[in-house]
Amino acid sequence: SNRPNAQNFPRGGTSTLKRLFTSRFGDDGYIMEADYSALEVVCLAAFSMDKNLIEALMQGTDMHCMRVAGQLGEPYEDVLDKCKNENHPEHERYDQMRTDVKPKAFAYQYGATAFGIAFATGCTVEEAQEFIDAERALFPEVEEWYEGEVFAKVESNTKRHKEQVGDFLRTYCTGTWQSTGGTTYEFRQFPKAVWENGRRSEVMAFKPTQMRNYPIQGESGFFVQGISGAVFR
Predict the structure, then answer these.
(1) Quick check: 67 pLDDT over 70?
(2) pTM over 0.85, yes/no
(3) What is the pLDDT of residue 12?
(4) How far is Cα 72 from Cα 106, in angstroms, rounded to an integer?
């Protein structure tokens, strides 16, 4: 991902950088490029075993149309038709709603809170929270997996540490989550401002954004390695 960032070459053969790579077998060899569709979503479905998410992936459901349908309380098929059928009288409005839901979905997928989604997308915190509530209603077992598997295990195996911050000695904890593949992910607590009875105080807490994001991003890399091996074979 650095010098050069090979993960973000322009698509469609427009980058001359790809000419730097040649097959070790010369004219008898080939270079193949492949992309894993909805990688992180597939990884999340594999870990959480959320029935709705698995069904959506297996049926090739348009996830963004599914989200719009969930927000509006309309049948998925109707929303899909309005989004994809350019001749539909409401196509432009629904196509824009599908576009608008993408940044929220990606931000939430990477662990953003309602405040984080609002900051990243420009919507209100209330709108962001409505999106999160709808997402949890669509895929309830995803949230159960995060709460019961990742968050709970990180909290249950904490180790206490001390660090010097100026003239003060601060105590914080680290906790770990181990994937079924054996990789261990370590998380640490950070200062967090909380308000109670109109008074502000500081506590040490784990970041839910990291606990949601790191395991899925990390394990997705192993999915790619496994599929690459299957492609070679």
Answers:
(1) yes
(2) no
(3) 67
(4) 19
